[in-house]
Design goal:
It contains six helices and 24 strands. By secondary structure, the protein is an alpha+beta fold. InterPro entries: F-box-assoc_dom_typ1, F-box-assoc_interact_dom, F-box-like_dom_sf, F-box_dom, SCF_F-box_component.
């Protein structure tokens, strides 16, 4: 390695997955410094995003959290994450190799499965609005703000009052945003009156337990129509740069249909479920331009499923002839756009139901991780070493 020019090593390292680079830090001091440098971390991420190399699927099931290489489904790796000892851990988003994890509204972490590095968010209490006594639904979003070059977590909580189930009282809400750069939370107080009204009367947001959909520097949620109360769907967006909410326009013909949202090819997409027999996929080619919405393709209900409750496109194949679909939080299939045929993506030793996130291989958060987490690990090892020494001492006394 000492005889190879550093620029050649840099070019080679940019093409390797993050998990390999973590091991390569021990090769030499120059390699260690290169891989840990912020400039290399940013260049490696940009190279991975541009080429689509080392793309993985994160599977999350009742007793499962693992990564799967899309090009090699037999390559499955279990993920030991930092919140595993807590409650039922939610994965609420994926961005640039990071995932958001939550056991509760105050137990949240950013985690990089490729490097196993963690940043636990400082605990932030829920400030119950006046007249509220308990929290209701909690909605999260994870995104990267390219304007401030900052990773942000959005937490929205709708609360219950003494008679929260009676619609006349509405559902007060609280919105807070975490900044990784500042390592602190901020409460969002200014919300447009029209959106305030929608929040106040909607008790749940759609899209898979309320996780925000990240596209074009914004997080998105669907406010679904409510028969007998509100006849139309609404899509709201939270701009990560301005930290403000807006209503996003979409085709009026879909305002009364069963819709959901996702991301395909970097663009916001909309799935319209027609009586659970087929799904039309629409895409917004030019962001925030209503006229740029166009119907992309139709997916008929596969014969292998009894119901067609949920469908989400994830990505195109490299030849762009097929689309990988997630169906009913239970299976992954390749859908041939020309023949309309399905082919199941078989994953080794994984037959149970699961939810899916796309995951890129990155060094974001660095290789050394959150200093607080490193300190906790050192303290835990020190306690374990002390207990081991005490155990050995007792054993020696017994046998002497």
């Amino acid at each position: 390695m000492a005889n190879i020019p550093m620029d050649i090593i840099t070019d080679l390292f940019l093409r390797l997955p993050a998990s390999t680079l973590v091991r390569f830090r021990v090769l030499s001091k120059p390699c260690f410094s290169l891989i840990d440098s912020p400039d290399f971390i940013a260049s490696h991420l940009n190279h991975t995003l541009q080429t689509g190399d080392h793309l993985m699927i994160l599977l999350r099931g009742p007793r499962l959290l693992c990564t799967v290489d899309i090009d090699a489904p037999d390559k499955v790796s279990d993920v030991e994450h930092p919140l595993k000892a807590g409650g039922l851990t939610e994965v609420f988003g994926s961005c640039n190799g990071l995932i958001g994890l939550s056991n509760s509204p105050t137990d949240i972490a950013l985690f990089n499965p490729s490097t196993r590095q963690t940043h636990r968010l400082p605990a932030e209490i829920v400030d119950f609005p006046e007249g509220s006594t308990t929290r209701g639904y909690v909605f999260y979003g994870l995104g990267y703000d390219s304007v401030s070059e900052d990773y942000k977590v959005v937490r929205m909580i709708q609360c219950k009052g003494g008679k929260a189930d009676e619609l006349v009282f509405g559902f007060p809400y609280e919105i807070k945003v975490f900044s990784l750069k500042k390592n602190s939370w901020k409460r969002i107080k200014r919300v447009l009156p029209a959106i305030q009204l929608l929040f106040y009367f909607y008790y749940h947001l759609l899209y898979r337990r309320g996780y925000g959909v990240l596209a074009c520097n914004s997080l998105h949620w669907v406010l679904p129509r409510r028969p007998g109360l509100i006849a139309f769907n609404t899509i709201i967006r939270f701009d990560l740069a301005s930290e403000e909410f807006e209503i996003l326009d979409f085709p009026e013909s879909l305002a009364h249909e069963n819709i959901d949202i996702g991301v395909l090819d970097g663009c916001l997409c909309l799935m319209c479920n027609h009586e659970f027999s087929y799904v039309d996929v629409w895409i917004m080619k030019e962001y925030k331009v209503e006229g740029s919405w166009s119907k992309l393709f139709r997916v008929p209900k596969p014969k292998s499923v009894e119901s067609f409750d949920f469908m989400r496109p994830l990505l195109y194949s490299k030849d762009r002839d097929k689309v990988l679909l997630e169906i009913n939080n239970a299976k992954l299939v390749w859908f041939d756009l020309a023949s309309k045929r399905f082919r199941k993506l078989r994953i080794k030793d994984c037959d149970s139901s699961y939810s899916v996130e796309l995951l890129v291989s990155s060094l974001v958060l660095g290789c050394r991780g959150d200093p607080n987490e490193v300190k906790r690990r050192k303290e835990r090892r020190a306690r374990e070493d002390k207990l081991m020494q005490q155990s050995n001492k007792r054993w020696c006394m017994l046998i002497s």
